[in-house]
Design a protein that fits this description.
Blueprint: E1 7-12, H1 18-27, E2 31-36, H2 41-47, E3 51-54, E4 80-83, H3 85-93, E5 97-113, E6 128-141, E7 147-151, E8 159-162, E9 167-170, H4 182-193, H5 202-217, E10 222-225, H6 230-243, E11 247-253, H7 261-272, E12 276-281, H8 283-290, H9 296-317, E13 323-325, H10 330-335, E14 362-364, H11 372-381, H12 386-389, H13 409-428, E15 437-451, E16 454-467, E17 475-476, H14 481-494, E18 498-503
Parallel strand pairs: 1-2, 1-3, 3-4, 4-9, 10-11, 10-13, 11-12, 13-14, 16-18
Antiparallel strand pairs: 5-6, 5-7, 7-8, 8-9, 15-16, 16-17
Helix pairs in contact: 1-4, 5-6, 5-11, 6-11, 8-9, 13-14
Length: 516
């Protein structure tokens, strides 16, 4: 079965929510891709979607430089769903009139919907639904052959449709969580209206990708850098399933990992999956180079350069490779093709950017169609341990940027113990999975304390936990007091060398997630 043939296309007009539309469609088990709205029409034809979604966007359709779409899109005979700005485009194209609304509408609103419409099939709202609005323009005059299928107090045409043409448009955002049952509306569009089969499942993805990898790689060799993080772990497990022993993994243990992390990588991939795994114990070399260095950017540079040196040395020992595997995800791919223009850094090559030119290989990126939540589902299905799959993101320089000031083995060990306690308590309180990232920082500050009858003069540590969806912005996590109390007590009592714990209550911006 070709799981990619059941698909819709999302044209991006610059909305901050476009990726969310794609995620909701994927959750409905239908494949989709995002193209910038100004993509050549031939690319759209070539993609051959079964339906098209026009995203929202910050512009107004009557702005001089409003982003438009090739109008041939409306003549393809395909089902179309316009959302917000996409609705104005649909309205304008089919002969309606768009005007600035007397009131901007932003926030929750009550939609009265036509429960006979296919778009609203199966909604449990009895004709009323809370939806999320965010617009300045509205449709003043609906195109003649459309009918109203939803209205709010402020928008007489909040949803419209033409069943014969299979073209629909809605003023609100079904992709955000504030719109109740918004998922059902998007699912109705892709399945009931566009007629896509719901075959985009982790199991089908694995099967299709394994075949694709086998075909492309044949009996040639692939090299993969394993970090123990979710992306490289899932990429390696998937490639191994496809080509078995022709996959060679290199795990560079820089001595800056979390407690037990190195052992777990070896246990999972070496012992359990029986991969060809080289475990490079480079702790001493990294720590020697870092001795006396306190500047965070210098630390990053040293760690990054040494990683490349270690990785390259192992790769050369293993002989010639045709492919280098990477855990690039779909958001990295979209970022570089977005309507807003190429992003300043193309992250997909971030990890190999420093490898020497004379190492020739093609990239294998088996996860480049997936969102993070899909990667996790695929990983679980491949049998990777939950602990690896659900693990919070961890920066490449590791504890190097969490032991503030000078890095020594002793300070890394102290930090590892404290961090393990913090994480254990978050698991115990069932908070770990709702937090984007949580960790401990060892401060370059000694403070006075008293233990028993004795004065102590030891390190202070900070614990940090944030909510976020992508790491770009973050809010500090509201961890219950009793959990914080336990974390602090346990760290001070169990970790020799720490006598004070503080909780970081800064959001990003203006702070960053990491301290260095
Ligand atoms: P900041 O601290 O910039 O972090 O708010 C945002 C996200 O990126 C991670 N991070 C890094 N990841 N190399 C990496 O691979 C780095 O040097 C680095 N610095 C920060 C950070 O953990 C968070 O998830």
């Amino acid at each position: 079965m070709d799981i990619h043939s059941e698909k819709v296309l999302i044209l991006d007009f610059g909305s901050q929510y476009t990726q969310l539309i794609a995620r909701r469609v994927r959750e409905a088990r239908v494949y989709c891709e995002i193209f910038p709205c100004n993509v050549e029409f031939e690319k759209i034809e070539e993609f051959a979607p079964k339906g098209i979604i026009l995203s929202g966007g910050p512009s107004s359709v009557y702005d001089k430089d409003a982003p438009l779409v090739d109008t041939r899109v409306f003549d393809m005979g395909l089902p179309i769903l316009g959302i917000c700005y996409g609705m104005q485009l649909v309205g304008q194209n089919f002969g309606g009139v768009v005007a600035a609304s007397a009131h901007r509408e932003y926030g929750r609103s009550e939609l009265n919907y036509d429960s006979e419409s296919l778009l609203f099939k199966g909604l449990k709202g009895d004709g009323k639904l809370t939806v999320w609005m965010s617009h300045g323009d509205r449709l003043e005059k609906m195109p003649g052959d459309f009918k109203v299928i939803g209205y709010t107090d402020n928008a007489p045409v909040a949803a419209m449709g033409n069943d014969d043409k299979q073209v629909y448009a809605i003023q609100f955002h079904p992709e955000v969580v504030h719109t109740e049952q918004g998922k059902v509306i998007l699912e109705n569009f892709v399945t009931e209206i566009a007629g896509c089969l719901q075959v985009w499942t982790p199991g089908n993805f694995i099967q299709a990708e394994v075949e694709r990898l086998r075909e492309r790689i044949g009996d040639r060799k692939v090299l993969c850098g394993l970090s123990g993080g979710v992306d490289s772990s899932v990429a390696a497990a998937l490639i191994q399933k496809a080509i078995g022993d022709n996959l060679h993994c290199v795990f560079v243990d820089n001595g800056l990992l979390r407690l037990g992390e190195g052992e777990q990588v070896v246990e999972t991939f070496g012992n359990h999956f029986k991969m060809n795994l080289v475990h490079v114990d480079a702790e001493d070399r990294f720590l020697d180079l870092l001795a006396g260095v306190t500047d965070p950017e210098k630390k990053r540079k040293i760690i990054g350069n040494q990683f490349i040196r270690e990785f390259e040395a192992e790769a050369r020992k293993l002989g010639d490779f045709d492919f280098l595997a990477q855990g690039t995800l779909y958001p990295d791919v979209i970022e570089s093709v977005s309507f807003k223009g190429p992003s300043a850094t193309i992250k997909s090559h971030h990890n190999v950017g420093g490898l020497p030119d004379d190492m020739q290989f093609e990239l294998v990126e088996p996860l480049r169609e997936l969102f993070k939540d899909e990667v996790r589902e695929v990983g679980l299905q491949l049998g990777l341990p939950e602990e690896i799959i659900q693990r919070h993101p961890f920066p490449g320089p590791g504890l190097g940027v969490r032991v503030l000031g000078e890095i020594t083995k002793e300070r890394c060990d102290i930090l590892r113990k404290a961090d393990a306690i913090f994480i254990e308590e978050l698991h115990r309180a069932d908070l770990y999975n709702s937090i984007w990232q949580a960790f401990t920082v060892l401060l370059p500050v000694n403070t006075v304390g008293v233990m028993g009858d004795e004065r102590t003069y030891e390190n202070a540590a900070a614990v940090r936990a944030v909510y976020s969806t992508d790491g770009m912005t973050a809010d500090w996590a509201r961890i219950p007091e009793d959990v914080l109390a336990r974390v602090s007590n346990r760290i001070i009592n169990e970790v020799k060398g720490i006598n004070r714990v503080v909780y970081d209550i800064s959001s990003k911006p203006p702070a960053t997630i990491e301290w260095e």
